[in-house]
Write a structure and sequence with these properties.
Length: 200
């Protein structure tokens, strides 16, 4: 057996955090440490919403850039796709996250692999076109979609404004609104997120 993988635990609820730590301590391949020193971070949540997706992004953006395994009490339709688009490398439902499965997901994430249970994978693959997203604000208006498509095609703000008959300020506002609503960093991140999440 090699060196144990350092794994940290992040949770909004101290009871969930304690339970996750206890489960991880039963895995000899892992060593539990502070999230800032972890190679993999396990995020344990009840449900997935904007705050929890922010936790995934914030954890991934840490200086050490740990891989993220998300353990959720419940996932609504579309949540698995949002979690993967936000940067999660593994997904587990809490009721299925025994020591063996959790260790498997953490070790896979440490090797830059992704683990998703079959039923959640089917949810991602079988999502009907135009289906309602798993949390409020998870879709784009026709105007937002048109602007983002042109951004994806490499057009500048002035070109987009001219082709869509908007003012440059309107185009800038549309892109800003998208990045704020989905908590994205810039135009490129907005395009990448929209493509991965099936919003374009």
């Amino acid at each position: 057996m090699g060196v144990p993988v350092p794994v940290g635990v992040v949770a909004l609820d101290p009871v969930l955090e304690a339970g996750t730590r206890s489960t991880l301590l039963a895995c000899p391949e892992l060593t539990v440490c502070e999230p800032g020193n972890a190679r993999v971070a396990v995020l344990t949540v009840d449900r997935l919403g904007p705050a929890e997706l922010d936790m995934v992004r914030t954890t991934r953006a840490h200086l050490t850039r740990p891989a993220v395994v998300l353990v959720a009490g419940a996932l609504a339709s579309g949540d698995a796709l949002h979690a993967l688009a936000a940067g999660a490398r593994g997904l587990l439902l809490r009721r299925e996250a025994d020591a063996s499965r959790l260790a498997h997901a953490v070790l896979a994430a440490a090797q830059d692999d992704c683990t998703v249970p079959t039923d959640l994978l089917e949810q991602v693959l079988d999502r009907p076109e135009g289906a309602e997203r798993g949390w409020a604000g998870g879709s784009l208006s026709d105007r937002e979609r048109s602007v983002l498509r042109m951004v994806a095609d490499g057009h500048e703000t002035a070109e987009i404004a001219q082709q869509l008959a908007y003012s440059p300020r309107t185009v800038t506002t549309v892109v800003h609104d998208i990045t704020q609503r989905f908590r994205l960093r810039n135009r490129a991140h907005a395009v990448a997120y929209a493509l991965r999440a099936g919003l374009l």
